[in-house]
Amino acid sequence: MFKKLVLRFSMNLSQTSFEREYKEARRLDTVSALRTLLIHAYDNVPYYQNVLGRTNVVKNGKVNLANLDQVTILTKQMIRRQTSKFISRDCEKRKWFYNTSAGSTGEPIKLIQDRLSHKWAHATTKFYYRDMLGIEETSARKVLLWGPRRNSSSGRAHFGNRVTDTLTNTIYVDTFCISEADMRRFVRIINSYKPEIIRGYAGSLYELCRFVERKGLSIFSPKIVVSTAETLHNVMREKIENVFGTKVFNFYGSRETHGIAGECRYGLLHIFLFNNYLEVLNENNQRCQEGASGRVIATTLHNLSMPLIRYDVGDMAIVGPEKCKCGTALPTLRKIIGRQIDYFPKEDGSIVYGGYFIELMWAKDWIKAFKVIQEDYKEFRILVVLRDRILDEHDRRDIEERIRFVMGRDCRVKWEVVDQIPKTKSGKHLHAQSLLRVP
């Protein structure tokens, strides 16, 4: 009984810690938040003091939003070259931490994010589930098909993560390396726990459903399935919905920006304008009209420690109508184009999630850019652009060991130092790619 009271009290705290941000989100006061951010960036951030002043976006303490489109579009390369100039001079007044971002389309960058931005991230999630999908996400039973939550040395999840998972009724399953035994265990967990929400990487959800269908298994049908982190292709959506017997909703965000848009029951993705100010631009940097596709450009409204203004997320999107039949007062996107991370097949029929290899590489300071390629079951080639023309031998051996740990002890890894990483025809940079077809 005492334990239940403690858990209930802690749950109430976790639910109310971002209640103010949630209420503000429902007001949808984007313009006010954008003006506040721009004035703060002009006053405190060296890079924007120059840019916003030169373009007269901020002048004499006043904001001219009509000039915002004159601000140079921000890229990862620009941040990487002069990171310190993007950090607010007053960031020490806030609780902040580092976050590394790379995704599947660019080189890694190290960002500073603060507690306020994460409160808004939680508020955005709450708005999406409660106001758009009609479900209390924090208290609902959830199974997440995600990456590892364990400490690399102990093999167990961090204590804080275990407490949070307990308080929020969340079970994480690690889908970075998947065997048939793992798939069967995931099915048992879902059938036993009977979650209201199943959320995960699009590829992880798809592969699990393919397995369930191939083996003729039955699996519990949750209230909703939410796909995130990767492109949800139509064939994937159809398979997931058929196997789980429920609708799949697409949630779009990134490490740099947190929640950007969420799909409603009518199939449109509503832009969370209270969390990010969003633009979709064509090749001439003009705003796209409904039905046209362009680059996703986001301005983070609440990360005052390191604002990102007109930041190129690295994805493409198709603009949707301003209004939707669902009644949500947010403009829409029809579709997100981008971000697909390959799975790497093994000879025994199991598969390894491509994100596993990305995580091995992206936090290494000596690596400027990379691409891990599976050429055969036991043949790997790593293309790497060095930051200072020095390949760290200790890290190299550690990376090879970790690849062999999941792909087989007799796996061969060949490194190739290059000047640049070749991109796809669409201009994307895939960090992890298998040349083999997943069976």
Structure report:
With 439 residues, this protein is of the alpha/beta class. It starts with a helix and ends in a 5-residue tail after the last strand. The strands form five sheets. Strands 6-5-8-9-10-11-12-16-15-14-13 form an eleven-stranded mixed β-sheet, with helices on both faces. Strands 21-20-19-22 form a four-stranded mixed β-sheet, with helices on one face. A three-stranded antiparallel β-sheet has the order 7-18-17. The protein has two domains: 1-339, ANL, N-terminal domain (Rossmann fold, 3-Layer(aba) Sandwich), CATH 3.40.50; 343-434, ANL, C-terminal domain (GMP Synthetase, Chain A, domain 3, 2-Layer Sandwich). It is built from twelve helices and 22 strands.
Summarize the structure.
Helix content is 32%, strand content 26%. It has twelve helices and 22 strands.
Largest sheet: 11 strands, mixed
| Tally of discrete structural domains | 2
CATH architectural arrangement of the largest domain: 3-Layer(aba) Sandwich
- The total of helices stands at 12
The total count of strands amounts to 22
CA radius of gyration is 22 Å
Distance between the termini: 50 Å
Instruction: Tell me the CATH superfamily of the largest domain.
Output: ANL, N-terminal domain
Layout of SSEs?
Layout: H1 2-16, H2 19-27, H3 30-44, H4 46-54, E1 58-59, E2 62-63, H5 76-81, E3 96-101, E4 109-114, H6 115-132, E5 142-146, H7 159-167, E6 170-174, E7 177-178, H8 180-193, E8 197-201, H9 202-215, E9 224-228, H10 234-244, E10 248-254, E11 258-263, E12 269-271, E13 276-281, E14 293-300, E15 311-319, E16 332-337, E17 343-345, E18 351-353, H11 355-361, E19 367-376, E20 379-386, H12 393-407, E21 412-417, E22 432-434
Parallel strand pairs: 5-6, 5-8, 8-9, 9-10, 19-22, 20-21
Antiparallel strand pairs: 1-2, 3-4, 7-18, 10-11, 11-12, 12-16, 13-14, 14-15, 15-16, 17-18, 19-20
